[in-house]
Write a structure and sequence with these properties.
By secondary structure, the chain is an alpha+beta fold. Helix content is 31%, strand content 30%.
């Protein structure tokens, strides 16, 4: 995880549990291609896009902010997370990063991917623990219907 100098503001009642950005390792192909095909400004643009993506995990929500010129901020309430998934390609394993995939009950964001996160498996475990705490505090339980045979 890359530590964030300017963390995303959260409310006074929230406690930030983690913050980070995607790893620049996701751009290694662009940097290598600069030598052969892609102009350097394209690789610099990819670096800037990655640099301006921010994640902030609090004890209540996961806040994602991205955008170079225009900003888009998305909040995911932790009690809406249904399942967490960790995936890691061979190359990601080599450099110690991975992807966290969250399945949610949120209508606008049914699946959220936190891509190329350093120490992603432990961040996923932290998310899972905070989800359980938040569900207990809000007394939220999930009921799956529709997959049973009659």
């Amino acid at each position: 995880m890359d530590e964030v100098e300017n963390s995303i503001p959260v409310t006074a009642s929230e406690r930030e549990a983690w913050s980070g950005t995607p790893s620049q390792w996701q751009n290694i192909g662009y940097w290598l291609a600069c030598v052969l095909v892609i102009p350097i400004p394209w690789a610099l643009w990819r670096w800037l896009v990655t640099r301006t993506t921010r994640y902030a995990l609090t004890d209540q929500r996961l806040k994602t902010t991205r955008g170079v010129f225009n900003r888009v901020t998305d909040d995911l309430e932790l009690y809406r997370v249904k399942d967490t998934h960790f995936q890691q390609t061979f190359w990601q394993r080599m450099v110690g990063i991975g992807d966290i995939v969250l399945s949610t009950s949120d209508a606008t964001t049914p699946t959220m991917v936190l891509g190329d996160i350093r120490d992603a498996d432990s961040v996923r475990e932290r998310i899972r623990a905070l989800v359980e705490q938040r569900r207990d505090s809000k007394r939220v339980r999930e009921l799956d219907l529709g997959h049973e045979t009659l």
